[in-house]
Design goal:
The chain has 270 residues and is mainly alpha-helical. Helix content is 69%, strand content 3%.
């Protein structure tokens, strides 16, 4: 004849939960066993097994202990349980999206570190922030950057993202290595040429175009210039620059000089 009652340890072993878990459920009035009148020890019965499975099932569905406690008082599940399940479904979908997003960032970061072996702290933090806030960057770029350019700068495929991130990391490293050198330095010019060519290739623009052509607004108009500046400042709120103030000032200056050099070169060619 099968045993009808169990001590707490026997009950825990038979279901595959810990004794501590059963203590906790008892304390929270979720599953309260009866007590032996003589010893005061907890005594579990076969009916408690079904109740525990009920708890474990709702826990599997991701329900909170408070919700589980409420449903443990009911003998039937009615239509209100559907609403609870739908709310839980919505929460789990959001959780899954977040988990998928984090896994994608982890995958891309591992790729970078495996290729580079070591990465400057500020550069990696900037890249991680950029990965984390891709959706926000896209929202901010609407109305500022041309739609077709946005699709190229914010690709959907992980391989394309990792390629651009690796190139950006390389550029950041070269900026820090060349910091302080004049714009006409051969390594500085090569650094800017490589990066400028990369951007042009990414957005399918030929060298006769200016980088300012990526904007959907005329930045020569003061109002639009202010919009672009506000956009850049907003981006930097979510994606910190990996450069110091001095490096940033230097980079802006040599980029201006480089662009002037390209314009003069094109005029001579024409």
């Amino acid at each position: 004849m099968k045993k009808e009652t169990f001590s707490i340890s026997e009950f825990a072993n038979s279901i595959g939960v810990s004794v501590r878990t059963l203590y906790y459920y008892d304390e929270k009035n979720i599953l309260k066993p009866r007590r032996d009148e003589n010893t005061g020890h907890r005594v579990y019965e076969k009916e408690d097994m079904l109740q525990l499975h009920k708890i474990m099932t709702m826990k599997f569905l991701g329900m909170s202990l408070d919700n589980i406690k409420d449903y443990m008082q009911l003998d039937i599940f009615n239509l209100s349980f559907i609403d609870t399940l739908r709310m839980q479904e919505s929460k789990l979908i959001k959780d899954k999206e977040q988990i998928d997003k984090v896994l994608d960032v982890i995958h891309r970061t591992i790729y970078l570190l495996e290729n580079e072996k070591e990465v400057d702290h500020d550069i990696l933090v900037s890249l991680l922030a950029s990965m984390q806030n891709e959706k926000k960057q896209l929202e901010l770029a609407k109305g500022i950057i041309k739609d077709d350019v946005m699709k190229k700068l914010f690709p959907q495929r992980a391989e394309e993202k990792m390629f651009f991130e690796k190139e950006w990391l390389t550029f950041c490293k070269r900026v820090k290595e060349n910091f302080g050198r004049p714009a006409d330095n051969s390594e500085v010019k090569q650094m800017l040429t490589d990066f400028y060519s990369l951007i042009l290739d990414e957005v399918d623009m030929d060298s006769s175009k200016k980088l300012t052509d990526i904007f959907s607004v005329d930045i020569n108009v003061k109002e639009n210039e202010e919009r672009v500046e506000a956009y850049i400042q907003e981006i930097e709120r979510f994606v910190p620059t990996p450069f110091t103030a001095e490096e940033k000032t230097w980079l802006e200056q040599i980029t201006t000089d480089y662009m002037s050099f390209l314009c003069n070169q094109k005029e001579r060619e024409n």
